[in-house]
């Protein structure tokens, strides 16, 4: 192939970032073959020629396609080919979507797809960041309207120092996994998981990444200047000014304020329904306007709510700007589960259920991250239609549900006990009973209590809260809102979710609808969420349950862990698992053994666990001379009796050692099945371990 394409490169955090334009996928609106280290991704951007009819949103699809060949693996399962997107792929698609979506025109309704085909993965060059950069430059050089480019950087915190786009080994020792996306002027997306990183350090990391992003944007600007296509024109779907003017004649500003100014979601929705009916009657003769009523009323509500908040400092439910809705918490709702708790904040209500299981139940992961093969803690989030008063069939978790579950999981992982401290696989499921703003953060609060109620010795309580934003015409004209409800999320500019303990942040997720945030806004949002989460921990979570229960519940499996000599593992397992299966059959437990000799015994009844541990310890240890043992008679010979002390572990008592007086026949003293005490005499002349019944009496 002749080299007719253009290639651009820059040094980024110790590795070369290379962008090839015009090399592949030339029929896409925009395409780049992007390399970072040995990670290679094909990022493409395509758009439909015409807008999609009958929709009131921008139809953007973001795909992150994980190909197992990229890490030299064949997919697991029977089919041996990639199927639906993995959870990791869904989460990555969401992270790419969030900073890109606000930069497309608000009135653009053409279908747009951003596809990222992961073709080679270098563990030291994260494909998530490469895909974000690839999507940004692919759209920027295309003819699709887009106010970019953006750039993204990951930040780690290793031994107190910030590390940009950390290597695989650095990630393992990092206290921070932060992704920051920026425009030329502002921060447009933040995603973070952290080991209780203090607020000041988090802000420092965010803006250090923002500075590095500016270098990448300059690099991209040079590519766009040489290769960028002229942006195509499109059919605007904006509501005509004449329609707005006509609506305001029928529904004055004061009437709209009265309709939306209530803390009852159902009342507000009924008020808006009546307004739409009134307008439909008024415009009955104008079919074009009738079709636009829903969008027009939405825009009218949005302008009204934003004006009330920004200019009058009045929120729709009457709260102060930093006021949290009424809170409630309770535990032990469900009698037979391992742990349960419910958290209520206004019209948002979450019930989280905790389930404990042996480590063999941990989730196995088959993906392109070769360093992650299993997951011990799983948080799942469900959002049924009844929680918002709607009716539709359940089709399983969508991208939003997967994202909310992952965010809560990220927030709680830093406070979980180690496997050595608590050898359980843990699953929490958050059921949304009612939703009116920030259910993901409510699920973190409910999960904290549920874990504690289940007896999981978490290190600290974690709470989450969301801050909102309404901006004016200038950077310093804004209002930050604590604990946003649904209406403020829909019509506002930001959903800034922060979770953490008293001592620091454990997770951040920032969604915005504008072209970025200034440093003062980010600092105020982080300060507000810290105040709110400390209030929730002190005033709500602690009164409900102050510390983890000392033991797991009655119906939870009990797990005891012991260590044995790794060389004895084969003795415990036996040929084809014969010995370990016999122990399991006799005691009713589950047994997990790792290569280092850690043995976890799991069961509901304490007696069965203790018996299994006794058997395992017997098999894995050597007989000690002078020690008393208990064995079962399994065979009688003329010269003595054979005893079984544990499955596969036997010894013999010579006839001369059965009783202090002379014994003529073994059967005179013992019968099959007898359980007797014997004393170990050590090795005999033949090197065999012998036992004595008479010396044990």
Automatic annotation (TrEMBL):
Residues 226-305 form the KIX domain. GO terms for cellular component: cytosol. The gene is pnp. Keywords: Coiled coil, Cytoplasm, Magnesium, Metal-binding, Nucleotidyltransferase, RNA-binding, Transferase. It comes from Frisingicoccus caecimuris. Belongs to the polyribonucleotide nucleotidyltransferase family. It catalyses: RNA(n+1) + phosphate = RNA(n) + a ribonucleoside 5'-diphosphate. Its EC number is 2.7.7.8. Involved in mRNA degradation. Catalyzes the phosphorolysis of single-stranded polyribonucleotides processively in the 3'- to 5'-direction. This is Polyribonucleotide nucleotidyltransferase. Its cofactor is Mg(2+). GO terms for biological process: mRNA catabolic process; regulation of DNA-templated transcription; RNA processing. Residues 265-292 form a coiled coil. The lineage of its organism: Bacteria, Bacillati, Bacillota, Clostridia, Lachnospirales. Its main location: cytoplasm.
């Amino acid at each position: 192939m002749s080299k007719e394409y253009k290639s651009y490169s820059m040094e980024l955090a110790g590795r070369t970032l290379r962008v090839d334009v015009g090399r592949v996928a030339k029929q896409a609106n925009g395409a780049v073959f992007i390399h970072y280290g040995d990670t290679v991704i094909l990022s493409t951007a395509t758009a439909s020629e015409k807008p999609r009819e009958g929709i009131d949103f921008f139809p953007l699809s973001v795909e992150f396609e994980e190909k197992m060949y990229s890490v030299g693996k064949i997919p697991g399962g029977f089919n041996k080919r990639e199927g639906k997107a993995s959870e990791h792929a869904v989460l990555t698609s969401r992270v790419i979507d969030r900073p890109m979506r606000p930069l497309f025109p608000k009135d653009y309704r053409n279908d747009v797809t951003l596809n990222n085909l992961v073709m080679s993965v270098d563990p030291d060059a994260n494909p998530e960041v490469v895909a974000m950069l690839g999507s940004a430059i692919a759209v920027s050089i295309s003819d699709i309207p887009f106010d970019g480019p953006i750039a993204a950087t990951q930040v780690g915190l290793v031994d107190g120092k910030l590390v940009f786009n950390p290597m695989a080994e650095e990630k393992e020792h990092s206290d921070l996994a932060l992704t920051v996306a920026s425009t030329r002027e502002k921060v447009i997306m933040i995603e973070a998981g952290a080991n209780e990183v203090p607020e000041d350090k988090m802000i420092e990391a965010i803006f250090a990444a923002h500075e590095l992003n500016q270098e990448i944007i300059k690099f991209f600007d040079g590519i766009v200047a040489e290769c960028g296509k002229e942006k195509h024109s499109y059919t605007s779907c904006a509501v005509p000014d004449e329609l707005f003017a006509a609506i305001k004649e029928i529904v004055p500003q004061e009437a709209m304020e009265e309709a939306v100014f209530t803390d009852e979601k159902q009342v507000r929705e009924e008020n808006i329904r009546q307004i739409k009916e009134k307008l439909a009657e008024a415009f009955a003769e104008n079919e074009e306007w009738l079709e636009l009523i829903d969008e027009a009323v939405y825009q009218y509500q949005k302008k009204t709510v934003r004006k009330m908040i920004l200019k009058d400092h009045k929120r729709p439910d009457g709260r102060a700007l930093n006021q949290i809705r009424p809170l409630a918490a309770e535990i032990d709702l469900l009698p037979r589960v391992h742990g349960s708790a419910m958290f209520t904040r206004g019209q948002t209500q979450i019930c989280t259920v905790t389930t404990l299981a042996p480590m063999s139940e941990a989730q196995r992961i088959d993906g392109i991250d070769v360093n992650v093969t299993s997951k011990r803690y799983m948080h799942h989030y469900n959002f049924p239609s009844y929680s918002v008063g709607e009716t539709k069939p359940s089709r399983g978790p969508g991208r939003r549900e997967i994202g909310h579950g992952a965010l809560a999981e990220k927030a709680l992982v830093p406070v979980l006990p180690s496997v050595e401290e608590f050898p359980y696989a843990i699953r929490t499921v958050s059921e949304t009973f009612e939703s009116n703003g920030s259910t993901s953060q409510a699920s973190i609060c409910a999960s904290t209590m549920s874990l504690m109620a289940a007896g999981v010795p978490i290190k600290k309580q974690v709470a989450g809260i969301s801050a909102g934003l309404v901006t004016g015409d200038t950077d310093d004209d804004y209002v930050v809102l604590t604990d946003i409800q649904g209406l403020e999320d829909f019509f506002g500019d930001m959903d800034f979710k922060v979770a953490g303990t008293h001592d620091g942040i454990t997770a951040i997720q920032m969604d915005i609808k504008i072209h970025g945030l200034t440093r003062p806004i980010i600092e105020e949002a982080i300060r507000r969420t810290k105040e709110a989460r400390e209030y929730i921990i002190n005033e709500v979570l602690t009164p409900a349950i102050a510390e983890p229960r000392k033991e797991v519940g009655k119906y939870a499996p009990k797990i005891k862990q012991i260590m044995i000599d790794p060389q004895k593992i084969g003795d415990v397992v036996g040929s084809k698992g014969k010995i370990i299966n016999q122990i399991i059959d006799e005691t009713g437990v589950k047994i997990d053994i790792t290569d280092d000799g850690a043995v976890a015994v799991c069961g509901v009844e304490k007696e069965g666990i203790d018996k299994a541990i006794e058997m395992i310890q017997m098999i894995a240890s050597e007989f000690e001379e002078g020690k008393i043992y208990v064995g079962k008679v399994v065979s009688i010979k003329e010269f003595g009796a054979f005893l079984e002390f544990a499955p596969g572990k036997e010894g013999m008592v010579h006839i001369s050692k059965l009783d202090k007086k002379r014994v003529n026949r073994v059967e005179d003293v013992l019968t099959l099945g007898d359980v007797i005490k014997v004393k170990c005499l050590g090795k005999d002349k033949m090197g065999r371990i012998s036992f004595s019944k008479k010396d044990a009496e």
